[in-house]
UniProtKB/TrEMBL annotation:
Native source organism of the sequence: Anopheles merus
PANTHER family referenced in this protein's UniProt entry, alphabetically: DYNEIN AXONEMAL HEAVY CHAIN 1, DYNEIN HEAVY CHAIN 6, AXONEMAL-LIKE-RELATED
Keyword Zinc: no
One GO MF term attached to the UniProt entry: dynein light intermediate chain binding
Domain (Dynein heavy chain linker) ranges: 796-936
Protein name: Dynein heavy chain linker domain-containing protein
Ranges in a coiled coil: 944-971
Keywords: Coiled coil
Gene Ontology CC, one term: dynein complex
One GO term of the biological process aspect: microtubule-based movement
Amino acid sequence: MQRKTARIISQPQLDQMPWRISLPATKRQSSKELHRLSTSSKTADHILRAPKCDKYQFICNFTHRRLTDPRELEALLKEKGIDNVTFCLPQWEQIDLSSGAHFMPLALFDDCEYDTFDPGVVGFWRNMEVIAITTPYARWRSYTVNNHDPCTNQWELYFPFEDPKKFAQRIGTAVKARDTAENAIRFRFLCKHITSNGCFAPGRALEQSILRRAGDEIYGVFKNLYEDYHIGLAVGQHLRTDGSVPIKQPSFSHSLKPPKDAPVDELKWERIVHLLDRFRRRTLLCDTNVFHALRLVNQECEMVRKLPMFVVASDKPIPLEEYEKLNLTQTSKTLKYLQNTWIERTTMHLHRLLSRIGNGHFNIGVGRWEIYNVMKLKRLIEQVLYRMQDALRDLLLDSTAAYVHYLVNDCSAVLAIEGEDYSWDGNLIDSPFEPQRPAVFYLLLEMGPDMPYYSTDPESFPETLRHILDDILRACHFIHTIEPSLMQSLIFAENLYLSSVGLLDCAIVKQREALLEYYHKALLPLQAYAARYAAYRELFFTNVKEFVEQIKNADKSSSEIKEDIAFQIRMRENLEHTVPLCIVIGPFWINVQPLREALIRKRQELTAALLKMLTEKLRIKTADVITCYNGINERMCEKPVSIEHIYDIRAYMEDVPELVVRLEDRMRGILYEYEILEGFLHNLPDADFQQKWNALAYPRSVLKQMVSVQEFHESEVDRFRKQQFADEAAFTASIEDINAYISKFTTLYDVSKVSEMSVEVRRLWKTVQELIDQGHIMNRRQELFEMAPISLNNLYELRSNFSAYRELWTVAADYLKLEETWIGNPLASVDLDGVRRGLQQTHDSLKDLLPLFRDQPQLLVVVEHFLQVVEAFRPNLDIMELLKRPYLEAIHWGQLAKEIGLKGKLSVDVGFDVFLEHGFRDHLETVRRVVVKAEQLRLEQEARWAEEERIRQIEEAYRRARAERRQNRTEI
């Protein structure tokens, strides 16, 4: 069964757990859906249900009339026409709806009004013998009660202390209801799967009438309903004539049958009825359903009184923002329960129980206000309203008191503060504001650019905590009453809410004032404590790099840096003893550890930076000393490349002993500075440590190296002397070779190979110069070896004789390159002055060469040839000057092309070679005539522009004078 007793069982669980049988929640839900489907057409409304007083199954003295043998119960049920198969359903085969087999569980149709007891007082029935029927056995057997679920009010097996006759009557009623529901389902299934092919559709006239008045959509709905109705009539008529089909048309007409036994004494019965009627009119508890309804309402109200409205407990202090979020989550849950679940559950209980009573004073389906106002139902709802309002008020008062009690954690020193000018005079570790209970809120002390501050603004605490309290009090004024949801046939206003606690309620005002007073006073020592950390602001924001740079710029000595390092160490130790990790001030737990660690870390960083700076300073000094030693070694150990180099090294080595002494004195002073680092127990890096001892060992190494170098130089002098003899012989041979080559080369005079000749001439000239420089070097070495110098007169004479020949081919090649650029580049980019200068310079250079080659006719012809080339280009200057005149426009270029007979577009952007190809040198007069005409036109145009400008200025002066005269007349 669904509730309290599980007497009719059709589940197969007993095979696995023969000692425990219950109806699962999923089964119950599916059964309810199936029951809703089967009773949707009110097919089960005609089931005869006896009055409540006739359905009690409980036997006061259960030792009498109770059944102990399952066979007796089975025989009694057979007398009522109930077979054991009735309780069982097919397990693994599909049900044919056209057959008479049952397909719905009997438990779905159990009449719950046969319940006999309150589950709160029947604990002593556990573990007693019971009788039940299960699917595998298909007969009644004895079992033991295992447990009772107070949430669903279900027992896990049948009780034998009930009246067996009424138990049989209960089962018979359920069987009839199941038969009716299954028959209705079969009928609807049959009607649904019949194809009418339009036989039962509305007539043509009815169709046109509905379409004209309502449209296609309404007609579609009407057509479906019409066809379903007539199909049902046709199927029902067929079933009445065909008796072989187990399906019957369900009957929707039902009536109440009169009681079978009429009263014996009519007068006595009428008197009892009259007294009973008067009692029922005076009291609300005239029906057990009302009593149970009020009991359930009271249970819901008690649950509301226990709801958590605020967060009033925490394992550790939390930030205000987090506390606000937790409160918001908690209050949202509670408000959702109050505004929805509480109302829904209360309405559900009242609707479920009051709907059992039906028509009368507790008819929740009443639709007229004048009737509702005189009904007991209104008094009952008012009673429920008062109970709910009392529960809501108790909830808010208790929650508010717990909220304030949690936040105000009893610190008498905070409440004793007077005045607004409190200052923190004690040390930073000991707090005179230790509360009796743990701190509530977490604060992180941080350092700002201007002053220290907390992670949460202390000024926000009073307002935020007050808003949390007031917001929930305001929200609780919007909890709807149950009337609109219960009395759905009446229309109520939308703003019907339960009366809650007001913001100005005396208890609320007292709690709020206590909260605000405590937190306003707690802010004074909190802010005074933070102000004490302003002394550390400069340290906190000190930039280590800038600090070190300042020390470096001050150029402090090592002893002064030593004092700075000692000062930083003392300040760090002072911080460790004067700044706490955390401190409690009233309701606030302040975390100072990050700031303390940051300050200590800053002192450590400054100390480390100073030690590092001093280390780097000593490293640089030591490295400089080592560099000097290395420089001495490198200078002495240079591999000589010549005899000159050996003499330079020997001269340097004479000063090495004195240099080593000075470096030793310098290193002794650096060792004193290294002792400063050792005094602070600062470990030098391995590289610095190695560098220090290398510097101390270098003097001996340098002096030892001097002896080795001197021995090496003796052997090198002999090697260079031998090399000098070989170099002298090679030098003499080179002079003879170059002299012979130049003598042969100067006989060449082919003007067609100007470029090749100029390149070769430059190369030979460079070779001669190199030989002269090499001769000077070898003569200096001859002096060092105390040998006779080498004569260089023949080289000087060779260079002098070759200079004129080099000049000829160099000037010729350079001119040809210039001429190529003048002709090949666009005419607009040619500099005429540069052309003129190039021509004149080349002409002058060639003229100067004529006297030098009078004895060499072939070369003289070459000079005269290049003079003719230069003179041949001079006429091109006139053409260039005319074509580069600024007044030539496109029309003039076109005229030139037309007169010369050229088909093409000309402009100054064209190279001069184009003009030479088209014979412009033969049309010099034509070009001059066009250019002169263009200049004349331009001059005439400029004259017209000047005249127009003059006239415009005259007119402008006239207008200006006239305006001045008008202004003067206006002023007069």
